[in-house]
Amino acid sequence: MPVTMPHELPARAILEAENIFVMSDERAGHQDIRPMRIAILNLMPMKVTTETQLLRLLSNTPLQIEITLLHTASHVSRTTSAEHLDSFYSTFDDVAHQHFDGLIITGAPIEKLDFEDVDYWPEMTRILDWTRTNVQSTLHVCWGAQAALYHHYGVGKYEVPQKISGVFNHRLTGAKSPIITGFDDEFLAPHSRHTDVHASEIEATGEVDVLAVSEEAGVFLAATADGRQIFVTGHPEYDADTLYREYRRDSEQGLPVPVPAHYFPNDDPTAVPLNRWRGHGHLLYANWLNYCIYQETPFDPAED
Which pLDDT belongs to residue 268? Predict the structure, then answer.
């Protein structure tokens, strides 16, 4: 079954061109089925790009998905038009009374700021607290993962000497979780961040298991035993050229950023990079939808 999205959403045309089946709100309303209600709190500056990347991964499932896009009311976006936000997004206050089967909280390019110095941190903490009661499972990505680990469990983040950027090899730790069903013992995934979290601090919570790590990039995946809190420090949703575009942007601004590691063929920045993480990205999101949401959520989310 497809992802249900507004007909005018820019991501729709992109996904249809890739032969990904999407459905309009009108057509979905004629199907006698309860779709999985998934919200996306999009904190990334290029919101249309992030929408498309996430919707692509969410589409790879037999379940029907109903998407609600959210943005923070306490921060004014400088890179996404007010028209786009007004047309396709809601704020937390708009949905705070609702229950969702799943929520994705994206990353944000603010890692070097202390959490309390982020202008929307009070709103963020309200949302994180709300997920405990109104969301079956929350998938936190990159800064979103760091923010949730800090708020819920007091796990700190640490600035690294050089940006962690590239496509890194990861291995499973041996901890058990349905979210890694079907994963290879070793797999690739992109990272792009200036800060890190420590596996020892995550394990010390007694509530969160580290599931996959990289010798070079650190923790990649962690989760609570009940699957209600998933933490992904990398970016399995990235397109093949996303790291290249970030590297070019930062280089043109004169920032001292490294060439993304293990990304360009032969480490040549003029070569065209290949997507070598797509399969595990799709598997991660399919497992999240199936094992953490569909198999666990009640027919009426308000009964949870």
Answer: 93
What are the tens digits of pLDDT across the range 152-181?
999 999 999 999 999 999 999 999 999 999
Active site residue 198: no
pLDDT, tens digit (0-9, with 9 covering 90-100), for 243-261: 999 999 999 999 888 999 9
Task: List, in order, residues 6 or more apart from 29 with CB less than 8 Å away.
Answer: none
Q: 181: which 2 tokens?
A: 């069903």
CATH of domain 32-239+280-303: 3.40.50.880
As a whole number, mean pLDDT of residues 6-27 equals 65
Q: Does 132 count as an annotated binding residue? A: no
Q: Where are the domains of the chain?
A: 32-239+280-303
Q: Is 276 a known ligand-binding residue? A: no
**Which stretches within 186-277 are classed as H helix?**
199-204, 242-252
Candidates 71, 142, 282, 292; catalytic one: 142
CA–CA distance, 66 with 86 (Å, rounded to integer):
18
